[in-house]
Write a structure and sequence with these properties.
The protein has about 140 residues and is mainly α. It has a single domain (about 20-135), classed as YidB-like (Arc Repressor Mutant, subunit A, Orthogonal Bundle). Helices cover about 70% and strands about 0% of the residues. It contains six helices and no strands. The protein has helices at about 5-10, 20-35, 40-60, 70-90, 95-110, 120-135. Helix 3 crosses helix 5 (about 95-110) and helix 4 crosses helix 5 (about 95-110).
Length: about 140
């Protein structure tokens, strides 16, 4: 089952009640990954690894089962200020925002690294653009 099927199947619906909030959260995660300041998936992986989440990140990038990440771990890594900004943008509580990020981030990283390799920035940008087009009709 692909990422779109999982999302359509209601994974985020358990965390966020609004379809608009789900789409905005997906856009936010894609922005986190695409952000040139973070270095794409590689930069995000490094940030998470440096925060003590190396095993989790390796499981998302590698092949096999993805280890979970908790909303508290997301809050610790991104900080309360960034989580508050995301929550305000989505229109949900900070708990819902960090919970949604904890649910979807591992899956998106996993889907963007299907062969266990981090794509170069150009390929990553193309993949995220195509994903955005499918999800948001842009």
């Amino acid at each position: 089952m692909g990422l779109l099927d999982q999302i359509a199947g209601g994974l985020l619906k358990q965390v966020l009640s609004s379809g608009t909030a789900q789409n905005t959260l997906l856009e936010t995660v894609m922005s986190l990954i695409k952000d040139s300041g973070s270095g794409g998936i590689g930069g995000l992986a490094e940030t998470l690894t440096n925060s003590g989440l190396g095993d989790e990140v390796s499981s998302w990038i590698g092949q096999g089962e993805n280890l979970p990440i908790s909303p508290e771990q997301i809050l610790q890594v991104l900080g309360s200020g960034q989580i508050q900004e995301i929550a305000d943008k989505i229109g949900v509580s900070t708990d819902e925002a960090s919970g949604g990020l904890a649910e979807i981030l591992p899956q998106i990283v996993d889907q963007l690294t299907p062969d266990g390799d981090v794509p170069d920035d150009d390929l990553l940008s193309q993949g995220l653009s195509m994903l955005g087009d499918k999800l948001f009709g842009k």
